[in-house]
Amino acid sequence: MSTEVKAKPEGEVAERRINMIEAINDALDIMLQRDPDVIVMGEDVGYFGGVFRCTAGLQEKHGKTRVFDTPISECGIIGVAVGMGAYGLRPVPEIQFRKYAEPATEQINDCGTMRWRTNNRFAAPMVVRMPGGFFKCGDPWHSQTNEVAFIHNPGWKVAVPSNAEDAVGLLRTSLRGNDPVIFFEHRNLLDLAWARRPYPGDDFALPFGKARLTRQGTDITIVTWGAMVPRCEDAAEGISADVIDLRTLMPWDKDAVLESVRKTRRCLIVHEDLQTAGFGAEIAAVVADEAFLDLDAPVARVTMPDIPSPHNPLLLEWAVPSVERIRAKIDELVAF
Amino acid sequence: MAKRPSQPATDGGNRPALSLHVPEPKFRPGDTVDFSHLKIPEAGAQSRPDEACHARETEPLAYDLIRVLGEDNKAHGAWDPKLDPETLRAMLRNMALVRAFDERMFRGQRQGKTSFYMKCTGEEATSVAAAMALASDDMVFPSYRQQGILITRGYPIVDMINQIYSNKADKLKGRQLPIMYSSRDHSFFSISGNLATQLPQAVGWAMASAIKGDSRIATTWVGEGSTAEGDFHSACTFATVYNAPVIFNVVNNQWAISSFSGFAGAERTTFAARALGYGLAGLRVDGNDALAVYAAEQWAANRARANAGPTLIEYFTYRAEGHSTSDDPTGYRSAQEREEWPLGDPIMRLKRHLIEIGEWSLEQQVAMDLECAELVKAATKEAEKNGILGHGLHHPFHTMFEDVFEELPWHLQEQAAQATRERKIKWPGHHPMEDAGK
Questions:
Q1: What is the mean pLDDT of chain A?
Q2: How much is the average pLDDT of B418-438?
Q3: What residues have CB less than 8 Å from A309, skipping those under 6 apart?
């Protein structure tokens, strides 16, 4: 996978601000133009352009055999994508909502082990686009993130972009790489003003495993990703904090986290996924293991409790980590 | 704690009590076997529709049984593929070689040279004859009992044994189960331990081939038992939706470990009949009749290649041996089943046919069997020079961390380094396998 970060273009191109939907649409459009092996498929992605409009106009532009609808069968969608990947195509299957991926669990696992168990005789690279996470009202199917489940499938990379620029850069790198990727599109970020960014250009690419320091400070390190990044930024208002947007979870940027923790001596991990055995537990374990003597406070987490997402917005608001809850934990750690 | 509903329900009035049907095979250990309930039609009695016909025209064939080789050992009817004697002899030898290979590998497992083996005894035609009807570069997505395809396509037997022995020449570096082969050069996809996953994968490969305007088709094999998996339904749906150039070969060998075919629905209908609901062509074929297998596979291949649609073929056969070396079928089925199986043995039937048409003799058969056994024995000896399972580490320790991803990410580098350190602490001294790959 390319680790090169192309410089952002100056001037006119950079003026154009786009939301994540446009970002994803643009990146797919360009890859469809440049790589004749890219295939986009999923429920409602063809003529209609996807329930979130991420594939709008792509079928008309690139034709029905490159951008098409599929049956409502996630096992089938990922299963045929494995066959297409083995043939040599670069499928980009869409799973309409996070928990719709469950029927594909077996195919996802089967795909991830392909290169290893055939000693490179076969591999099935693909980029699985998948919206999820909280948005207005919750429910157990559309609103969970549960990204940690994919990290336990050996062979899969996992991207969790928080904004339009990162979405472009990570999607492009995913499509150029030769490993299967779960590309998580957070529902609350798709059209959020905070996540809109200047268009980073047609060649912008971001490496996996390189975090971004969105704020710099000295008193605490806040490690987060996806839709929790803007909340952590708000919560850190007036605090001298490093806010680290991991951008990818497999692989994740351990060096950036440890370097920051050694400076600030405090570490808070904030994620939307459930607490028990969430990815924050892995980060906390590594920080405790490798930076124990640098810490001035316990490693802490703010996460969803271990419950399905409730529908009522007031319940959901309490369940998803809020700016207030994050801030309270920051204050507690800084004062420790 | 939630209360269980009171039972039985008492408010049913005069409605009759319901009863659950749990399937039970006809014969259990010690039972006298009588297969007279199986309808075995005359060879040659089945019509052969045009390869490009509407899927619905195959309906009678989904309930019938396509047969070519008759009791008189002659080939009959519209499905006779009319193969030349040379091809028939090659088919016979491929099947005989597969059987000799299975015998030897089974014994190897009993001798402790490997962990596990699966024979395909009695089912050789469903792999060998089918593979011979395909182009050599048509993609195959096998299940775990299709070693006949690899042998037919000329994959080196010694490489198969190297993998079975998990030795230093194992092309898959000791990672994969003994019989889960894969070879891109032989258009033979990897085998999965999650059954039926290969079905949608084959459809995807076929769709890709169609998207690219290629001429190669995809074929896949699955046991009757795992047609119950959701992947089967997904695959049939995708195949029909996109008219994918794919063939589904359902090997109905009557037994899924200890569960008879009734637990996949065989008491009510045929597996070939599954095709009809999807709009696929469906053929039900005598799987122990190598000529019928060849003819059906060729029909479906021609159909797929002409963009005329996918086909589901049920090969009706019998698993003459246990599921695997870990299975003892005497615990759940009657030993008489194998002897009484009304469709006979595929190798014997083809042999008798070749003799009948004056192209083969018993002497030639004996010589061929001996030659196959010797060939496998020689390959086994060759493979044993590379070691066997249990005789130590055959590949550099750190190789198991490689190829999870295209490039080794930091966390696997760390974990590999840690594991290597721990080995050196536990076993100080020289570690040739650790150093070998560095």
A1: 95
A2: 71
A3: A134, A138, A139, A140, A143, A144, A316, A319, A320
Closest residue of chain B to A157, computed from CA coordinates: B405
E strands along B281-387, which residues? Answer: 281-286, 311-316
Query: Count of residues for chain A?
Result: 336
Q: Please state, in angstroms and rounded to a whole number, the distance separating the CA atoms of residues B4 and A322.
A: 40
> How far away is chain B from the Cα of A208, in angstroms, using its nearest Cα?
10
> Is the CB of A38 inside 8 Å of chain B's CB atoms?
no
pLDDT in tens, B225-240: 999 999 999 999 999 9
User: How far is it, in rounded angstroms, from Cα B80 to Cα A175?
Assistant: 49
**Residues A75, B231: C-beta atoms closer than 8 Å:** yes
Other C-beta atoms closer than 10 Å to the C-beta of A312 total: 11
Q: Name residues whose C-beta falls within 8 Å of residue B432's C-beta, 6 or more positions apart in sequence.
A: none
B409:A106 CB<8 A: no
Match 């699966």 to its residue by tokens: B118
Q: Which of residues 47-66 of A touch B (CB under 8 A)?
A: 65-66
The whole-angstrom separation of Cα A111 and Cα A249 is: 19
What mean pLDDT is predicted for residues A83-92?
98
The encoded tokens of residue A53 equal: 């409009």
What are the C-alpha distances in Å from A207 to residues A137, A228, A230, A253, A294? 34, 21, 22, 11, 29
Q: In one letter, which amino acid is A192?
A: L
Specify burial of residue B257 (Cβ count, 10 A radius: 0-12, 13-18, 19+): middle
Q: Is B367 helix (H, G, I), strand (E, B) or coil?
A: helix
In degrees and rounded to multiples of 5, residue A283 shows phi and psi of -65, -45
pLDDT tens per residue, range B190-216: 999 999 999 999 999 999 999 999 999
Residue B436: the pLDDT is 43
Strand order in the sheet with B281-286: B139-141, B218-223, B246-252, B311-316, B281-286
**What confidence score (pLDDT) does residue B394 get?**
87
Q: How many inter-chain contacts (A to B, CB under 8 Å) are there?
A: 146
Distance between CA atoms of B314 and B337, rounded to whole angstroms? 20
Task: Assign 3-class secondary structure to A143-156.
Answer: CCCCCHHHHCCCCC
Whose tokens are 């704020």? That residue is: A215
Residue B135 has what pLDDT?
Answer: 98
Return the structure tokens found at A210.
């390189």
B/e letters for A31-58, b = 16+ CB within 10 Å, e = fewer, are: bbeeeebbbbbbbbbbeebbebebbbeb
- pLDDT, one tens digit per residue, over B371-425 is 999 999 999 999 999 999 988 888 888 899 999 999 999 999 999 999 999 988 8
Angle between helix axes B85-110 and B124-133 (nearest 10 degrees) is 140
> Which residues are registered as beta bridge partners of A39?
A91
From B171, which residue of chain A is nearest by alpha-carbon distance?
A119
**Overall average pLDDT of the B273-288 stretch:** 98
Residues of A classed as catalytic: 142
